[in-house]
Design a protein that fits this description.
This protein is α/β, with parallel strands linked by helices. 45% of the residues lie in helices and 24% in strands. It has ten helices and seven strands. Strands 3-2-1-4-5-7-6 form a seven-stranded mixed beta sheet, with helices on both faces. A hairpin with a 2-residue loop joins β6 and β7. α9 packs antiparallel against α10. The longest helix is centred in the C-terminal third of the chain and has 21 residues. It starts with 7 loop residues before the first helix and ends with a helix. InterPro entries: SAM-dependent_MTases_sf, TrmK. Keywords: Methyltransferase, Transferase. It comes from Rossellomorea marisflavi.
Length: 236
């Protein structure tokens, strides 16, 4: 992967960037995504944010290599601290865990109010959906894809009705699995949740050998609820 050829998951993220927007890519690593978006004529300008000095320096080198110093500003800082309020109209955060992405959004609320969010969690997309729901964001689009044996989700959101896109069905299941993804039920979606259920059932089996405690009972009940939710969606 480089700034001329992205991975499938990052190409999916880029596909939701509005034309001629000013973007911020948080946790940009080598700045491949912002360089690619500029070179393809998708974004007008970009900010690449990195909290770790090594990847920050790699991003600076990549921007210079592509002669994009006047259009891609590489900044060192924690999450959305690299931005000023209203500075960008699209923010991408990819390749992190859902809870970490949600915490970055929570800490930087004032920086994201008028921006489109394009988020690609490696795990626990439910954490992001919960944050969006609690903070008045509308989930516009969801996509799930498989690449190199791993399954990824991409969520696109803008400020608006947090219940838009959700049906009048089981809200708990839709927040867990994705309201739009639950409707489409694609092959990667089915594979992901079949694997999750298999793991949960193994955990439940192992729990039979453990000493009974209130915490164990709570964990068991949580897994049983999740399994039931997933089975209902997959068998719909």
């Amino acid at each position: 992967m480089n700034s001329e050829k992205l991975s499938k998951r990052l190409e999916t993220v880029v596909s939701y960037i509005p034309k001629d927007s000013t973007i911020a890519d948080i946790g940009s690593d080598h700045a491949y995504l912002p360089c690619y978006a500029i070179q393809r004529g998708i974004a007008a300008s970009a900010i690449a944010g990195e909290v770790v000095k090594g990847p920050f320096e790699s991003a600076v080198k990549q921007v210079k290599l592509n002669a994009l110093e006047n259009r891609v500003d590489v900044r060192l800082g924690d999450g959305l601290d690299v931005l000023r309020p209203g500075e960008v109209d699209c923010i991408t955060i990819a390749g992190m865990g859902g809870p970490l992405i949600a915490s970055i959004l929570e800490k930087g609320k004032a920086k994201v109010e008028n921006a489109r969010l394009i988020l690609q969690p490696n795990i626990s997309a439910v954490s992001i959906r919960e944050w969006l729901m609690d903070n008045g964001w509308s989930l516009l689009r969801e996509e799930i894809l498989e690449e190199d044996g791993k399954i990824y989700e991409v969520l696109v959101a803008e400020k608006g009705d947090p219940k838009a896109g959700y049906s009048s069905g089981n809200l708990e299941a839709e927040i867990l699995m994705g309201p739009l993804l639950s409707t489409e039920r694609s092959a990667p979606f089915r594979k992901k949740w079949t694997q999750e259920m298999t793991q949960w059932k193994v955990i439940l089996k192992n729990m039979e050998q453990a000493e009974e405690t209130p915490a164990l009972e709570e964990r068991r009940n949580d897994l049983l609820v999740k399994i039931k939710l997933v089975e209902e969606v997959l068998n719909r």
